[in-house]
Amino acid sequence: MLSVKKILIPIQGTPLSESTLTTAYYLSKNYNAHLAVIHIQPDRKDLIPLTSEGLSGSMIEEVMNVAASENQKRLKLAREIFDNFIDKYNIELTDPDLTEPAKEKITASFTNMVGRENELITYWARLSDITVISHPDSDSEISSSEALHTLLFDSGRPIIIAPKQKPLTTGKKICICWNGSAESAAALHASLRWLHYAEQVYILYTNDYENHGKKIQDVVNYLKFHNIQATPHQLGNDRDVGNTILSTCNEIGADMLCMGAYSHPRWQQLILGGVTRYMLENANISVLMNR
What residues does the UspA domain cover (predicted)? Predict the structure, then answer.
């Protein structure tokens, strides 16, 4: 059985950080995994090209000082949220360079990094079993949307997007979106780690899938090889597939959704809309995505 030993959790010190940490905690409980929490601050030298045009030396220095002050405030808040989190759940604080996690308990570490977020987050995601990232809330002062898409396209690892509101459970009732694509297959495989422990598993599909000569029972039978009992659930014919999926998850009472991301080109979905885009904007439960 696939295991989970290390979960990467980038936090930015926003109100969404608490929900992100809580989601990761629920996902780690069955494995006593290590929660590697990182906070990334931009390097001062990377800000200079963005602020130098048309500004005097003293004005640039002032802008840099303001940015540095804001970064420190964000770091302080991120650390406070982290410390409160490990105290609440009685999680052991360990060194970030831990090589062998404790076998009988969940452990956590906090690392502040300085550099380019997309490069650092991708590097460490590739060295983790999965990454849990905050919801890309456009109303937040800092949006995680760019980091999220970097992880999806460049890390080669599955990610889980935490809901905006702190969840009460994660992984007890799981819905799997299945359309037979490579992306949905990757998400199904990544979700096996949690399907084993779920109380109920549902496979969501549309009638188009079986109209092309494929059988949803084949997916059910595959999961049986992993001792996972799943229930097929055919979606309605509503053209708004994203809304239909999310409504079905809410009706079932699911607390986690697993799906492939961007089965169609990303530019097409951003312009015309699509299921991935809808979920990124509207999901109110944890969403595992892979591609």
Answer: 237-289
Say what the pTM is. Answer: 0.89
Treating both helix axes as pointing N-terminal to C-terminal, what angle do 275-282 and 241-252 enclose, rounded to 10 degrees? Answer: 50
Query: What would the two tokens of residue 191 be?
Result: 């979700």
Question: In the numeric block, which tokens belong to residue 195?
Answer: 């399907």
- β-pair partners for 114: 41
Instruction: Kindly tell me if the per-residue pLDDT of 221 is higher than 80.
Output: yes
- CATH 3.40.50.620 domain position(s) in the chain: 6-161, 173-290
| Radius of gyration of the chain, Cα coordinates, nearest whole angstrom | 20
> According to CATH, what is the number of the domain 173-290?
3.40.50.620
Confidence of residue 272 (pLDDT cuts 50, 70, 90): very low
Beta-carbon neighbour count of residue 127 at 10 Å? 11
Q: Is 54 left (phi over 0), alpha (psi -120 to 50) or beta?
A: left
CATH code given to domain 6-161: 3.40.50.620
